[in-house]
Amino acid sequence: MSENELAVRFFDRAIELLALVRDEEAEPISRAAELVADRVAAGGRVFAYGAGHSALAAQDLVYRAGGLAVVNLLPVPGAVGVEAPATLGSALERVDGLATAVLDHSPARAGDVLIVISLSGRNALPVEMARHAGESGLHVIGVTSLAYAVDTTSRHSSGTFLKDHCDVVLDNHVPVGDTVLTSPDIPAPFAPASTVVISALLQAVIAAAAGELAARGVEPPLLRSGNVDGGTEWNERVLAENADRVFYRR
């Protein structure tokens, strides 16, 4: 099979997953968007945490042209994406107690929304993050692949998964192992699709939340691209108006 054929197969598989998520997750997307809109309309804040490569999808929501200005990254030192050494992030995901300490020292407060993203949803860090957030009065939106709860075991001491500690669960439908392609002449499965699907899923939530806010007569605090005329001035206004709930700007 040629390289181009494999590329086409990946696009086809990614499109299939996107269509599946669009059709199967419409109701959870609406509920997640309503949670976000409720908090934004009330003057609250939204936070996003991603485990491992799921941090890419969390960061995609923060300070993003066309995104909500009040979405903040909740970083875990040593586990933000693939910092060097990249393997440290994987190890920290399995440490009990870390998420509680991070959340307790963050600006997140009761009533705020926390989006927790973990493809497997099985490791201690995302499970504990969601559980402790709920216990602290935050509204938790979990993004995960529910297939892992069927085909794997939890690595958290409670034996639970991320899905068990969320107000709303968004199933990204990505298969266990993340990869979506195989080939007879390639010894391992390949072509991970989770970043594509999860990012699209969360941008759909933000789009729906913006629509919900507009329907309520509330102007969504959206950012514009700084590379279009007037974009910088627009963003300065939006950031100034929401300074008490923006934590990525010093």
UniProtKB/TrEMBL annotation:
Residues 36-220 form the SIS domain. Keywords: Isomerase. The keyword Hydrolase does not apply. The keyword Oxidoreductase does not apply. GO terms for molecular function: carbohydrate derivative binding; isomerase activity. One of its GO terms (biological process) is carbohydrate derivative metabolic process. It comes from the Bacteria. This is SIS domain-containing protein. It comes from Streptomyces alkaliterrae.
